[in-house]
Amino acid sequence: MKKNIGAIMGLYPTPVTIVGTQSEERVNWINIAHLGVIGSNLMILSLGNRHYSNEFIKKNMTLSINLVDEAMMVKADYVGMVTGWRTDKSDVFNYTLGELKGAPLIKESPLSIECEVLDIIKTGANENFIVRAVNTYVDDECLDEEGKIDYEKVQPLLFEMPNRQYLSIGKAVGKCWSEGKKYNSNNEE
Ligand SMILES: Cc1cc2nc3c(=O)[nH]c(=O)nc-3n(C[C@H](O)[C@H](O)[C@H](O)COP(=O)(O)O)c2cc1C
Asked: Which CATH number do you get for residue 111?
């Protein structure tokens, strides 16, 4: 039996990310977990329109997306609790710059993506940024022998809103586009 608990957001957990932006004076970091994949190199990030970050995203039309591991959790939570309007958060993470202006890449993040903004869609009080990955930088130790990202090594932190918690990922339990071959319509479980 399932109970209908209404028109709520139930699509959790989502990955925790730190989005990096840059003004003339300094870089800024914001914790963003309302995001999605909309293609092989396209993503959508949903930001409340009053955040400090938005102005610089719109000015540069670039940003970085940095995955967070457990070691980064305290800093990641902090940049999601204080605003750049009142606090200079530029020192919270060490960073480098890649090819794009305005997209600082967090050194301690296992995986950082430099993105260009393709479009901005407004929904209520949110600005939703459609972004394209231009470059993806991955910690050597999180790549397998074939150079593919090993997410069991990345261990990206996850987020869920109802209990306001960070979660960790488990281990791989099956192979996509493969497990389905075991399905037998005459012998359903
Ligand atoms: C775990 C977590 C997830 C968050 N996810 C989002 C999000 O997806 N969208 C958003 O607009 N704000 C989100 N926030 C809130 C912003 O990170 C927060 O308001 C931040 O201080 C804004 O920074 P800024 O004003 O310097 O840009 C999240 C905060 C936390 C702690």
From this structure: 2.30.110.10
Exposed e or buried b per residue across 122-136, where buried means at least 16 C-beta atoms within 10 angstroms of its C-beta: eeeebbbbbbeebee
Q: pTM of the full predicted structure?
A: 0.97
Examine residue 3 and state whether it is found in any structural domain, yes or no. no
* pLDDT tens digits for range 80-120: 999 999 999 999 999 999 999 999 999 999 999 999 999 99
Number of helices and strands (H, E) in the chain?
3, 12
Whether ligand 1 lies within 6 angstroms of the CB of 62 is answered as no
Dist CA 114 CA 105 (whole Å): 7
Q: Name the residue of 22, 30, 49 to mutate for ligand 1: max ligand atoms within 8 A of Cβ.
A: 30
Per the structure, the count of domains in the chain is 1
Q: Is 77 in the pocket of ligand 1 (CB under 6 A)?
A: yes
The amino acid that residue 68 corresponds to is V
